[in-house]
Amino acid sequence: MGSDALGPLRPARTAEQVAHRLATAMALGEYGLGDRLPSERELASLLQVSRESVRAALRTLAGAGLVDIRRGRRGGAFVVAAWGEAGESAVRGALLERWEEFEELFDYRRLIEGLIARTAAERADAGDRAAIAAALAAFDAARTPGEAREHDVRLHRAVACATHNARLVRLHDGLLPEVGLGVSAEPCTWPARDEARPHHHALADAIARGDADGAARVTARYFAITEEALRRLAGRAAPPVPPETAGGDR
C-alpha cells in the first residue's frame, strides 16, 4: 500500500504514530482492560521502529491515562482505559486521516482472501483438511480473546497453506499486520469471536467439500466483520457535524 498508516513507520512523528496505533488497537478491543501490551522489543519489531520510539509512545499513553506502566519481573504496560479524549484523537490520527487507503486495503483483502479460499477448496488434501479442523477446534475451545485471536490466525493460515502456493501464503501473511495496524492480527473480542464462529465452521465445511464458490462467499462475509469494526470505530471518532450544516442549505 505504501502508506505511513499501513506500512513501516517513518522517522518523523514516529512515537506519536506508535501511540496512535496502540490506542486504536485498544479501542478496537484487541487489548482489553487489564491486558498487558506486547513488550517494547516485540512492538519495535512489529512496527519496525526503535525501542526508544516505543518507550516514548508508552509514556504518552500512560500520561493520557490509557495504560499503567509497571516495573519488575511481571511488569509491562497494562491497559487501564480504552477510550476517552486521548483515544478519540488517536483513532483520528490512525484511521480517519488515511481512510481512503483503508478502503483500498479492504477491497484488496477481499480479492486476495477470496482467491485463497477458492484455491484452498480446489486443492486441499487430507493433511490440509486435518490442519484446518484442528485449528477450528482450538478456536472453539479458546478461553480468552487472546487465545481466540491466536487460533484464528492459525486457522486462516492453514487455509492459505492449503492453496499449495507459497506466494499466496506470503500475501495472506502480509495482510494481517496491515489490518491490525501493525500491532496485532485480526481484532478479536468475545462478541467478535462469537460472530466469527459460524463463518469459520462454514469455511472449513466448504473446503472439506471442495466447494470453491461457497468458500469464497463465506470468506467475504467473515472479513467484513473486521471492516465493520473499523468503520464503527472511525465513525465514533469522527468530529460531529455542525448543526448549521447537518441538514444542508435551506
Automatic annotation (TrEMBL):
Q: Keywords, A to Z?
A: DNA-binding, Repressor, Transcription, Transcription regulation
Q: Where is each HTH gntR-type domain found?
A: 12-82
Q: What does this protein do?
A: Transcriptional repressor for the pyruvate dehydrogenase complex genes aceEF and lpd.
Give the matching InterPro entries: GntR_C, TF_FadR/GntR_C, Tscrpt_reg_HTH_GntR, WH-like_DNA-bd_sf, WH_DNA-bd_sf
Q: What is the lineage of its organism?
A: Bacteria, Bacillati, Actinomycetota, Actinomycetes, Streptosporangiales
Name of the protein: Pyruvate dehydrogenase complex repressor
> Could you tell me which Pfam families the record lists for this protein?
FCD, GntR
